Amino acid sequence: MEEKATKSLNFIEEIVEKDLESGKVKSVVTRFPPEPNGYLHIGHAKAICLDFGLAEKYKGKCNLRFDDTNPVKEDVEYIDSIKEDIQWLGFSWGDREYYASDYFGKLMDFAIELIRRGLAYVDDQTSEEIAQQKGTPTEAGKESPFRNRSVEENLDLFQRMNAGEFDEGCRVLRAKIDMTSSNMHLRDPIIYRIIKRSHHRTGDKWNVYPMYDFAHGQSDYFEGVTHSCCTLEFIPHRPLYNWLVDQLKEGEYRPNQYEFNRLNLTYTVMSKRKLLQLVEEKYVDGWDDPRMPTISGLRRRGYTSDSIRNFVDTIGYTKYLALNDFGLLENAVREDLNKTATRVMGVLDPVKLIITNYPEGQVEELETVNNPEKPEEGSRNIPFSRELYIERNDFMEDPPKKFFRLGPGREVRLKSAYIIKCEDFKKNEETGEIEEIYCTYDPETKSGSGISRKVKGTLHWVSSEHAFDAEVKLYDRLFTDENPDGHKDKSFLDFLNTDSLKILKGCKLEPGLKDAKPGDRFQFTRLGYFTVDKKDFIQGKPVFVRTVTLKDSWAKLSKKQ
Ligand code: ATP
Ligand code: MG
Questions:
Q1: Which ligand is located closest to the Cα atom of residue 262?
Q2: Residue 300 falls in the annotated catalytic set
Q3: Which of 68, 209, 233, 488 is the most buried (most CB within 10 A)?
Q4: Does a structural domain hold residue 335?
């Protein structure tokens, strides 16, 4: 019997299993906490697979919690897109759609409680002045002149801050912890600031908003979260997370924060601020542009949710920063589509080929297999006739020996059809462009007849009178540099790939593709995997988007260099 290899646990799963075994935790509760200030990207998919994956694996729960503490940058459009993306990835938060803003009341009560206990104070300094007093990791900070205000004065000022009496930026509330701590985050961090903006959920109710660090751990606590996973940058925030939860908690239960390595990918940027810049300055066609590393972009590009989950599974979770090869993600989608995509023929750069010994007006229906990986998907018929299209670069007037395609006097097989021989061609004398290629076919060699000869090349083709004329978009990587973000004196925009979108018109596709719909996925023989663009889709006029080439062309390129 074959033994099934069991994957070893990642370090967070190990922690969870220990906590369940020891009884420290009865049931696992995680959360995915996006800030609705942009669309989700492939890095978020890594966090989603961990947060929702842990809950699934250990029969617990994962909450969706929108971390909406900054009304300046947040928008309902982002909330909707985030929900769509998580569902598309195959995860569910049940009825637990939460918002940090739902806790603003409780957070305010807690802030007032901290003031009462002498653990928070209103600082009248600007954030610049406060930053100057922060010190350095090796040098203690300076105490604010407002640090020792009376509880009454603090309560009064904080209440007036929230009543809208003061302008933005002229007062903040700070936790009173330790200006000499070796951890900078404990040097009296700002916990509330004045923002006079409408919030997409709470309207004009509040004039003060909690800082991320003041909302996060407490929200975890309110929701009964057991394992709060975040990326490594939050390691230095953990003591503050714990300090705040310690002030808040009653009884035994507390949430704990665990940090894993974020996903970084070559040839792209992952910061939401930069992705927003690409969208706003129109370097791309929206957040779901097929070149974007967003979930919606990858979806429009033809990625499957399985391929993204498999990719995340392959790279795993560790405590070390890494830069993963974009090619790994592309391989994951190739592997998945190889199993599922229907094989079809389409000619992207057509040149006419005439079979001179094939009867004029005759049309034959030739059988072709839908997917050799899935025999149960059977076969279909495609029309063959005297005039065909083949790929322009499959013919050379004066080919070298190793060119196993078509040239004068040479033989190739047409896929699912016959062996043909090139007899002649017509060239535009002025432009030098090949206009027509003339071949003869050998009727004995029909595919499946059992009669064949050794020919080196097999070409794809489409019957000219039956062809469906289509537009095809070829997308490439958005950046030409492996690490567009990693250059000191250059902006990531300096590395934009100016050739990342080619729009081909007049492509000749096999006739059945006219009825293709968004969500359909194909392997165009010899060319790659393609899907129907869902943006501006018109029934009967699908535009095709290339998801990925058949092979990793970038790997070859970088080897050559
Ligand atoms: P920002 O806070 O700058 O707006 P962010 O990428 O941290 O951007 P959030 O919406 O706060 O965005 O992220 C939600 C969750 O996704 C967080 O728990 C965060 O740690 C996680 N996350 C974000 N980027 C990555 C990444 N590249 N790899 C893994 N997890 C990530
Ligand atoms: Mg964040």
A1: 1
A2: no
A3: 68
A4: yes
**How many angstroms separate the CA atoms of 216 and 274, rounded?**
24
Distance, CA of 196 to CA of 553 (rounded, Å): 52
Q: Phi first, then psi: what are they for 313, rounded to 5°?
A: -65, -40
pTM beyond 0.90, yes or no: yes
| C-alpha 83 to ligand 1 mean position (Å) | 15
Which of 12, 30, 42, 44 maximizes ligand 1 atoms within 8 Å of its Cβ, making it the mutation to test the pocket?
Answer: 44
Residue-wise pLDDT tens digits, 170-214: 999 999 999 999 999 999 999 999 999 999 999 999 999 999 999
Ligand 1 pocket, residue 43 CB under 6 Å? yes
Report yes or no on 282 lying in a domain. Answer: yes
Amino acid letter at 369?
V
Sign of CA dihedral 391, 497, 82, 51: positive
Q: Is the dihedral angle over the CA atoms 36, 41, 45, 47 positive or is it negative?
A: negative
Spatial CA neighbour of 64 closest among 40, 48, 88:
48
- Ligand 1 pocket, residue 270 CB under 6 Å: yes
Q: Is 35 a catalytic residue?
A: yes
- Phi/psi of residue 524, nearest 5 degrees: -80, 120
Which DSSP string corresponds to 262-310? PP-BTTS---HHHHHHHHHTTSSSSTT-TTSSBHHHHHHHT--HHHHHH
Same domain flag for 334 and 379: no
Same domain, 73 and 163: yes
The bound ligand whose nearest atom lies closest to the alpha carbon of 229 is 1
Active-site entry in 13, 35, 387, 471: 35
Neighbouring-strand partners of residue 388: 353, 463
* pLDDT one-digit tens code per residue, 224-251: 999 999 999 999 999 999 999 999 999 9
Nearest-atom number in ligand 1 for the CA of 46 is 29
In this predicted model, what pLDDT tens digit does every residue of 63-80 receive, in sequence order?
Answer: 999 999 999 998 899 999
How many Å apart are CA 412 and CA 455, to the nearest integer? 6
Cα-to-centroid distance, 103 and ligand 2 (Å):
18
Residues for the chain: how many in total? 561
284 closest CA partner among 492, 97, 57: 492
> 460, 494, 515: which is the final residue of a domain?
460
504 is written with which tokens?
């081909």
Question: Other C-beta atoms within 10 Å of 469: how many?
Answer: 12
- Residue 294: Cβ-neighbour burial (10 angstroms; 0-12, 13-18, 19+): buried
Task: Report the greatest alpha carbon distance in the chain.
Answer: 102
Total structural domains in the chain? 3
